[in-house]
Predict the structure.
Amino acid sequence: MDILWQYQFRIILLGDSTVGKSSLLKRFTDGIYSDVADPTVGVDFYARSLDIEPGIKIKLQLWDTAGQERFRSITTSYYRNSVGGLLVFDLTNHKTFDHVREWHKEVSEHILPHNMVYILIGHKSDLNKDRKVTQDEAEQLAADMGIRYVETSAKCNSNVDRAFQLLSRDIYELMKMGQITTRDGWDGVKSGLTTRALYPGDEDIELEPREKSCNC
Ligand SMILES: Nc1nc2c(ncn2[C@@H]2O[C@H](COP(=O)(O)OP(=O)(O)O)[C@@H](O)[C@H]2O)c(=O)[nH]1
Ligand SMILES: [Mg+2]
């Protein structure tokens, strides 16, 4: 019996509008980048699988705010049903960095008594000459929040896979330690989908795991 993925993690993108959240997701799931992004057209979620260690395949369900970044316009279930969050700011816009703490506070308060695993993302690293946030201050903020910091560029495809890999591995490690468990009525982590589950009674069928962005 083939296993398509052992676990599904539901992950959200957080941060001000135009920091590059949708571009990051498109690069990660479809391998494409466009300088002309339409903020009003957004899919709800994207998907891609990752092998985070030999034999362990994780399906990431990645949720985008789709232009609803204003505080309190995002529904609580968006936060509550997620196990991981990318806190994204634009390296060329200091305000977006200043707002990271607010995003972190807003989400963390909404999901109490549970926790979320975060990673801090300094995005648009290709625009180094316009940089307004130093690596040192970003690393300091990440250290204060007890999370990792990675600088990415969707344009140059720099560190994009790595950011999702690191976050997924952190979540998986916490699962192995029993600090994150699947819970009834919670979509943050779901366990295994196999070919048997997909095609009961037809175990000879061979399925290639295929992932595409989803706009349903
Ligand atoms: N230079 C550069 N521009 C980017 C990058 N990622 C996104 N952008 C641009 O930033 C703008 C906003 O991106 P978008 O993904 O819509 O941001 P969102 O509102 O956070 O989803 C668009 O014009 C993108 O082309 C990047 O890595 N480098
Ligand atoms: Mg967007």
In short: The chain has seven helices and seven strands.
